[in-house]
Amino acid sequence: MKNYGHAGNTFNKYGRMEMKEKDFLRKMLPRFRQGTEIAVGPGDDCAVIDVGKKDYLLFAVDQLVANVHFAMKDCTPESAGKKLLKRNLSDIAAMGGLPSFALLTVAAKFADKVIDARWLDKFFAGIEAEAEQWGVSICGGDISSTRKGDAVFTLSIAGRVEKKKLCLRSGAQNADILFCTGRFGNSYKSGHHIAFVPRIREARFLAGDYTNTMIDVSDGLLSDAAQLSSMSGCGIRLDAGKIPMRKGADLQMAQGEGEDYELLFAASPRKALKLKKKWPFKDVSLTEIGVFSSGVRAGKIFDGKNDLVKKISPGYDHFTTKK
Amino acid sequence: MKNYGHAGNTFNKYGRMEMKEKDFLRKMLPRFRQGTEIAVGPGDDCAVIDVGKKDYLLFAVDQLVANVHFAMKDCTPESAGKKLLKRNLSDIAAMGGLPSFALLTVAAKFADKVIDARWLDKFFAGIEAEAEQWGVSICGGDISSTRKGDAVFTLSIAGRVEKKKLCLRSGAQNADILFCTGRFGNSYKSGHHIAFVPRIREARFLAGDYTNTMIDVSDGLLSDAAQLSSMSGCGIRLDAGKIPMRKGADLQMAQGEGEDYELLFAASPRKALKLKKKWPFKDVSLTEIGVFSSGVRAGKIFDGKNDLVKKISPGYDHFTTKK
User: Fold this and answer.
1) Which of the four pLDDT bands, split at 50, 70 and 90, describes residue A19?
2) Inter-chain CB pairs, A–B, below 8 Å
3) Does the beta carbon of A47 lie under 8 angstroms from any beta carbon of chain B?
4) Domain total for chain B?
5) Three-class SS string for A50-109?
6) Does residue B8 surpass a pLDDT of 50?
7) CB distance from B137 to chain A under 8 Å?
8) 166-195 in chain A: CB under 8 A from chain B
């Protein structure tokens, strides 16, 4: 695996961070038996719990590892804290939900004096500022030392979504339009992976009224689109030339790097027409980048008619290079 | 800090693991603003969420760090997995609740070949077996690599408790009896810290009917009793001679080592009488070890009349050596 761009991160050639680990988890989690209240278990952006009310409870966890997900020397502790919470908020957004409360863990070697009380105070301040902005209660946590000096932070978040607004990765049908919010690529160098705004506002506008099939782009546009495709049982014909790119990005970066924290979603042709007229957010672009097609096998993405750019099987992720 | 007994753990002289870190967290967490649905925020064994039904939702997180909370060379991966879940179950028990669902994270350096796919498979199998026993749905998770080779596992758990059964650390009153379940001390060498059974059965019997003031002993009997005392606003007169000791333990170990995962709780004299008659569990002892006393300042524990054995202030933990 070739490190790209930045000494402190583990983006590989295609920017897909830790895909091997993610694949492993995709194989391991299905072993766990799910109780009847679990409406959606492992495999989506959040677990969905049926608490017997008009809303579902959403439940997700994400990690931030120093010098894996952020570079200690380039990132303020406040920004690292914000990123941890925002990664989780992006997962809640992808389900069409609103965040409610969260728990925090810190594991670090305090004797190292890199992650010390002063650093942690600022890290907590970053989380605090972000949490207040979104009305999230950080209602508990745990702190531990590590032996070798890694610093691992986790945040587990609960949220809520009205049952009719729930968005899953499955549900896209033949002829549905594939939309994206925002721009893609060059997230790391541009600082977007730290500065991004989780798309909760946009997701809440879309959920239920325009779509019930959505994912947030963390692993890379093609990877995450392939998840929609695979779980919906319907292939995708992508129009890669339409993918909106962040400044400094090329198509390969836009398709594969990840950490964009934008939304990908499916809308029926009728709803797509209405959506393009009604999209109210001047500061966030909305772009049609493809169409779901039952003529393409689930988990496969073609650029135009004949150019296979991505193929996944359940529990297995394979990248086909696109020149 | 002097390591005791075992190369792979960080028990200090009094067995109180990571108290410095825990104290830090006690200072940091109160900064976070809590929404109106948070009935109990940071500072108890679980956060308590009022979801507008007859039950509260409980929410807690715990970590397991390799060679801090368990020694890689002495502990099977299955046992480590079980311990991670059981630590969380013990927190749910302390609130009088039942566990429902949980999320799991793994951060490790997979290239090290210590924590590899085979090890993790067994670790997950341990969690799976324990989860099935208690009806816990492991409904999602995340996996990441670390840079330096630490292995950090977290589990965030949700549970439920009927509102009238909720047990907090606060609520003990003058003349209430301090009870404990089971035995104390020598948890590490005896293997109890791995093999223990979380006291959910016992807690469910007690909660609401005999007590609403409870804590589980993870930091050490005196430390955790002092938490009950401090948060209840009422000191404790302990009868240290009555503390039931695990085989191989002395009084100092029993009072200070921690990782006992037993329950400490307060019962009124009237309920205490009834409880001693009705306690149905032949395999788990129930022992009166002290009495709450308004004549002793909150957060202070005297052994008998005059021997101060423990004193804490809010956010500050101080151990007074008892010979």
Assistant:
1) low
2) 229
3) yes
4) 2
5) ECCCCEEEEEEEEEEEECCCECCCCCCHHHHHHHHHHHHHHHHHHCCCEEEEEEEEEEEC
6) no
7) yes
8) none
Asked whether residue A313 falls in the same domain as residue A184, the answer is yes
Is A95 near chain B, with CB under 8 Å?
no
Contact list in A for residue B146 (CB cut-off 8 A) is 65, 68, 150, 152
Regarding whether A127 and A248 lie in a shared domain, the answer is no
Contact B103 A37 (CB under 8 A): no
Look at residue A13 in the predicted model and tell me its pLDDT: 34
- Global pTM reads 0.90
Distance from CA of B77 to the nearest CA of A (A): 15
The arithmetic mean of pLDDT across residues A43-55, rounded, is: 92
Choose between B29 and A267: higher pLDDT. Answer: A267
Domain for residue B7, yes or no? Answer: no
Distance from CA of B278 to the nearest CA of A (A): 33
Nearest CA in chain B to A140: B42
Instruction: Provide the residue type at A258 as one letter.
Output: G
Cα(A49)–Cα(B248) distance, rounded to whole angstroms?
Answer: 45
| Interface contact A144-B61, CB threshold 8 A | no
The domain boundary residue, chosen from B127, B146, B164: B164
CB pair distance less than 8 Å for A62 and B117: no
pLDDT band at B19 (very low <50, low <70, confident <90, very high): low
Q: Which domain holds residue B81?
A: 34-164
Phi-psi group of B180: left, alpha or beta (phi > 0 → left; psi -120 to 50 → alpha; rest → beta)? beta
Secondary structure of chain A: what % helix, strand, coil (to 5)? 30, 30, 40
What are the tens digits of pLDDT across the range A163-204? Answer: 999 999 999 999 999 999 999 999 999 999 999 999 999 999
The residue among A139, A164, A189 that closes a domain is A164
Contacts of A137 in chain B (CB under 8 A): 32-35, 37-38, 41
Here the ipTM equals 0.89
- Name residue A98's amino acid: L
- Type of residue found at B285: S
pLDDT mean across residues, chain B? 89
Amino acid at the residue A94:
A
Lookup result for tokens 């938490």: B227
The whole-number pLDDT of residue B312 equals 85
Contact B59 A142 (CB under 8 A): no
| Residue B128 at interface with chain A, using a CB cutoff of 8 Å | yes
pLDDT surpasses 80 at A2: no
The answer to whether A73 contacts chain B (CB < 8 Å) is no
Query: What is the C-alpha to C-alpha distance for residues A291 and A294, in angstroms, rounded to an integer?
Result: 10
Residues B206 and B154 in one domain: no
CATH of residue B51 = 3.30.1330.10
B220 and B296 belong to one structural domain: yes
Q: B92 and B229 in one domain?
A: no
Q: What strands, in cross-sheet order, belong to the sheet with B177-181?
A: B214-216, B263-267, B177-181, B286-293, B235-238, B300-303, B307-313, B316-319
Looking at residue B53, its pLDDT comes to: 80
Is residue A19 in a domain? no
Please determine, for residue B11, whether its predicted confidence score (pLDDT) is greater than 60: no
| CA B101 to centroid of chain Cα atoms | 19
Is the Cβ–Cβ distance between A85 and A130 less than 8 Å? yes
Give the model's pLDDT for residue B114: 75
Q: Is the pLDDT of residue B6 over 90?
A: no
Element (H, E) at A155: strand A152-162
- B185 and B145: one domain? no
**pLDDT confidence bin for A53, thresholds 50/70/90:** confident
